[in-house]
Amino acid sequence: MKKKTQTFILKQPVYIISSASLAGKKEGVGPLKGYFDRIAENDTMGENTFEKAEREMFYQTASAAVRKADKKFDEIDFMLSGDLTNQIVSSSYCASAVKVPFVGIYSACATFAGTLGLASSLISGNLIDTCLCVSGSHFSTAERQYRYPLEFGNQRQTYSQWTVTGVGACVLSSIGKGVKITKVCFGKVIDFGVKDIANMGAAMAPAAMDTLCAFFNDTNTKPDDYDVIATGDLGKLGSDILIDLMKEKGFELGQNYIDCGNMVYSSMEDCMQGGSGAGCSALVFNSYFIKKLKEKRFKKMLLVSTGALMSTTTNQQGETIPCTAHLVEVNND
Amino acid sequence: MKKKTQTFILKQPVYIISSASLAGKKEGVGPLKGYFDRIAENDTMGENTFEKAEREMFYQTASAAVRKADKKFDEIDFMLSGDLTNQIVSSSYCASAVKVPFVGIYSACATFAGTLGLASSLISGNLIDTCLCVSGSHFSTAERQYRYPLEFGNQRQTYSQWTVTGVGACVLSSIGKGVKITKVCFGKVIDFGVKDIANMGAAMAPAAMDTLCAFFNDTNTKPDDYDVIATGDLGKLGSDILIDLMKEKGFELGQNYIDCGNMVYSSMEDCMQGGSGAGCSALVFNSYFIKKLKEKRFKKMLLVSTGALMSTTTNQQGETIPCTAHLVEVNND
């Protein structure tokens, strides 16, 4: 038996028939404010805990994506979702309300491309016809779970990032037209020995490099073949590291390279290296990129969501940070 | 477009070409002691934290499954794994050592059947040829993460369960003979309003019922058609509840029904309702059941891993427990 390549070339394209985005208040005043479906008035969504607020954002965004696909929940075959909360409870409680067969995914901030990759594989393999993909994060739940109590008001390192409050969701289908997923490349787990959990960009860049190189080699393509290559949340420092790493491997990331984390906040804010979180690439893809793809402003895109797979326990026990990056090729040509 | 059924009937059977099991010390003196590949001498595996011990158990079991398949890691196309630690770090650090494309799954104690379901779908859909599936848990990491510090020595409720220390792993392939997966049914998330995290059996039984009924209705089968139907970790109380719930739906679970959680400990021990955890059904399936299937003692089996999807945060915030159950049909006929 021949080993398959790391890249899955889908036998039939899988269409993104709808997408929805809900941004937090801070994200809603950033450079992408004109692209979001909805901007939350505040980060509590009228709930009494941030965790309930995050869950409500998941449900509202999932509902909007299904509604925009002109479907009801019971017309959806499958749901894949993930987030950053312990035991991915935002996704599971959302799935409890949505009531379709569901598997939770954990790839940290690489989750969104992970859901797209698995969903389009299952659709292309003719196991399901439609799948709801959801990913998101909330600054306040992530900050108090991974770092410090919000009330502590800790100082941030200059190389830190800001967890995006926002959710992106989309419905994939075997039948459609326009924007479609054509190839998928799931990442290996790469650990370059970075231990500083504030420096996620540096930890994740080697994983992004590994997946991108595997994809280009598998498909005999190069960065120039794409109108846009977007990583998930490497931030400014991480993006610079990726550009250098790719150059060493013989691939030039040029003007077509961008990072979702660098797009979501204005530079004058306190977000240091930019946005991060399972909501980062999900929010930016389901607002800005999906619009540009529909308008054929971009015809060929690679989305490479990046994730750092540590926990507070492993960090406190002095472990390094294993990272991954999942890639999907999205076309509208 | 017609909605597909909840049950996936695989176009081609997917073979379980190898399996491996590593049990903790307590599990290694239970009724199944003769079936495990390996029994750990102690629960620390020579490491200085229980978390590192759990990770080592994952790696050793994954390695054993690949070795028993007469393969090397780089001959494996894909890996799916999950566990109970926050951010499923046991799986991610194991994947970092295994170095094959990897997606982490979180379905709590339903994880093992979830990995089998996704892996066999991807193989049947011709996206990959081979997949490594891993799931496990460790009493000491789970207890201190979900409940109390081990040193506290809390009293256990009579309806509580004991998290299994153990890992099960297997390699699935498109090519093989003998034991094979032929159908898959992923669960919806079902919440019957149980809030007591000690009473997992009662919380999970309705999810097991929901998936079993969906499967029997989709495939026009009944419990009698199977030599054995094994739920993951409902425990004694949860199993009794499931039998009652199924009876109400018109399905009689008879002598062929068993629960992995009820099989793993001797009744005189302090495990109350039996075993639980992401390692429970993984360990029992990859030891006892796989042997009985190979010997054709059982020719047709349903494995229904059950999972409770809450976190300590949702519990402390007074939420109910959403649950799920994933099912795979395994044959050797």
Describe, in short, the structure shown.
Two copies of one chain form a homodimer. With 333 residues, chain A is of the alpha/beta class.
Helix content of chain A: 25-40%
- H and E order of chain A: EEHEHEHEHEEEHEHEHEHEHE
| Gyration radius of chain A, in Å | 18 Å
Could you say which structural class the secondary elements and strand pairing of chain A correspond to? alpha/beta
Q: State the total count of DSSP E strands of chain A.
A: 13
Strand content of chain A: 15-25%
Shape of chain A: globular
Number of helical regions of chain A: 9
What's the average pLDDT of chain A?
Answer: 95
Q: Major sheet of chain A, described briefly?
A: 11 strands, mixed
Most extensive interface: A-B, 69 and 69 residues
Give the low-pLDDT segments of chain A: none
Q: What quaternary form is this?
A: homodimer
First-to-last CA distance of chain A: 35 Å
Describe the protein in words.
The structure is a homodimer of 333-residue chains. In chain A, helix 1 (50-68) crosses helix 2 (89-98) and helix 5 (200-219) packs parallel to helix 6 (235-248). The first copy, chain A, is 33% helix and 24% strand. Chain A has 333 residues and is an alpha/beta fold. Chain A is globular, with a radius of gyration of 18 Å. In chain A, the strands form 2 sheets. In chain A, strands 1, 2, 3, 4, 5, 7, 8, 9, 10, 12 and 13 form an 11-stranded mixed beta sheet that branches. In chain A, strands 6-11 form a two-stranded parallel sheet. Chain A has helices at 50-68, 89-98, 111-124, 139-146, 200-219, 235-248, 260-263, 280-294, 312-316; strands spanning 7-23, 38-39, 78-82, 102-106, 130-137, 162-163, 166-173, 180-185, 228-231, 257-259, 275-276, 300-308, 323-331. The model of chain A has no long low-confidence stretch (mean pLDDT 95). The first copy, chain A, is built from 9 helices and 13 strands. At the A-B interface, helix 2, strand 4, helix 3 and helix 9 of A face helix 2, strand 4, helix 3 and helix 9 of B.
